């Protein structure tokens, strides 16, 4: 039997695999593809480097400055764990920007068309992007959080108040700060899937973190206090603190609410990916 007859599907020839005929990626291939994209672009290295520098460097600077100017009056309301993790509040912007770029960069260059041609099931593409980015963001954020904590506590030597990882609430706050950054990054990824424009998605993300709390603070206190605890930035403060405010959500319920925001943004993005042209 000739090679031509075999290719044409002559009797006795092995049936071709559907995947090879369609040329479409399975989920494993999509994840591998997204991992290649993420690790081979310069923006990933830059934003992760900024997250590391800000997360660790600012925490070390804050704790060293606190120790250098420590007085007895500093003890009132001082949270040693939160002070060493203060860089997380700045690192959230770089993680969010990376989350936006994971989705919006392909729209900017037009390569999203090739991605969807290879994987017509667009929600699967978004799932693969979220899985790869989420894993990287979580790993980097947890490393930054633990390094910042241990470095910060070592700088808060006596007579300054300091904690250990075994202190009540310390491990929860440190691990929670990494989870907080990861959830925020996924939320930003969802916003990018909805908006599809880098500048627009970054503006929306920063507006939710910075501008929205200012607007809420301008409301009457009877209304603003009840709304404030639902804001992502306020949830983050609760997660990083040993003793959350009375009107704040407890750390883990607050984290679940933040995960709900991220999931809602991703689901909305997946729906719009299907309904809109690339």
How is the secondary structure organized here?
Blueprint: H1 3-7, H2 18-22, H3 27-40, H4 42-68, H5 80-84, H6 88-109, H7 112-118, H8 122-155, H9 170-195, H10 198-217, H11 221-228, H12 232-240, H13 251-275
Could you list some keywords that capture this structure?
disordered N terminus, single chain, 74% helix, mainly alpha, 13 helices
Brief digest:
The chain is mainly α and 278 residues long. The protein has one domain (25-275). The chain has helices spanning 3-7, 18-22, 27-40, 42-68, 80-84, 88-109, 112-118, 122-155, 170-195, 198-217, 221-228, 232-240, 251-275.
Give an overview in words:
This protein is an all-alpha fold and 278 residues long. It has one domain (25-275). Helices cover 74% and strands 0% of the residues. The chain has 13 helices and no strands. The chain has helices at residues 3-7, 18-22, 27-40, 42-68, 80-84, 88-109, 112-118, 122-155, 170-195, 198-217, 221-228, 232-240, 251-275. The longest helix has 34 residues, at 122-155. It is globular.
